Amino acid sequence: MARVQMSFDEMWEKIMACDRTYDGLFYTAVKTTKIYCRPSCRSRKPKKINVEFYDDMAKAETAGYRACKRCQPEVEFSPHVDLVRNVIAFLINHYKQKLVLQDIADHVDMSAFYLERVFKQETSETPRTYLEKIRVDKAAYLLKSTDRTNLDICYEVGFQSPSNFYKVFRRLKNCSPTEYRNLDN
After folding, report:
1. Average pLDDT score over the chain
2. What is the H or E stretch that residue 178 is in?
3. Which stretch of 117-121, 136-140, 166-170 has the lowest confidence by average pLDDT?
4. Where residue 128 falls among pLDDT bands split at 50, 70, 90?
5. Which of 18, 37, 154, 175 is catalytic?
6. 54 with 82, same domain?
7. What is the CATH number of the domain that holds 141?
8. Which residues lie below 8 Å from residue 23, measured CB to CB, with a gap of 6+?
9. Cα(first)–Cα(last) distance of the chain, in Å?
10. Which of 18, 68, 154, 175 is catalytic?
11. Transmembrane stretches, by residue range (predicted)?
12. How many domains does the chain have?
């Protein structure tokens, strides 16, 4: 499976939000407790300086961490988990590109119809809506961490048109990109 290309701060945001969509793509290890967890773990959040991220459980265990008893990252819940993780990693690593369902299906070597059905069954989302969520998450991160224009960010995160970017951003974040940038400032 491909490694997810996310910054430390992006992964930190995912664990603070207990985001289930990133489960299995990386693991959070806490230096002080020597425990590793899923990004969605509901346990008390550690201090940022005590956190390390691993892209698989074996690496975390080799580094001396044990699995969390609360979120049980070592337990698989579905026979399609690896397929879904592979697709999500592909989406995260290629979100900037113009992707259609067939591109994703070709990556995992299955029909587009079957892929969409299995993916939706496992995640309650289509690969397209999942890709939009990843793009909006990246855009939100760039809006808060850079002073690039909304238009630059729109194209940087893979949207093909500003109108679609604004529409999808508003649907997922309940505000415009400009409003989002100005929150908490």
Report:
1. 90
2. helix 177-182
3. 117-121
4. very high
5. 37
6. no
7. 1.10.10.60
8. 38, 39, 40, 73
9. 39
10. 68
11. none
12. 2
State whether 59 and 148 are in the same domain.
Answer: no
d(CA 109, CA 105): 6
Whether 37 is a known active-site residue: answer: yes
The answer to whether 36 touches 46, Cβ cutoff 8 Å, is: no
Number of neighbouring beta carbons within 10 Å of residue 104: 23
User: Does one domain contain both 32 and 112?
Assistant: no
Tell me if residue 18 is catalytic: no
Element containing residue 30 per DSSP (H, E):
strand 27-30
123 is in which domain, residue-wise?
76-185
Looking at residue 125, its amino acid is E
Q: What number is the average pLDDT over the span 92-100?
A: 93
Are 111 and 34 found together in one domain? Answer: no
Mark whether 172 and 95 lie in a shared domain. yes
Catalytic residue among 18, 41, 154, 175: 41
To the question of pTM greater than 0.90 for the whole model, the response is no
Task: For residue 154, indicate whether it is catalytic.
Answer: no
Predicted pLDDT of residue 65: 95
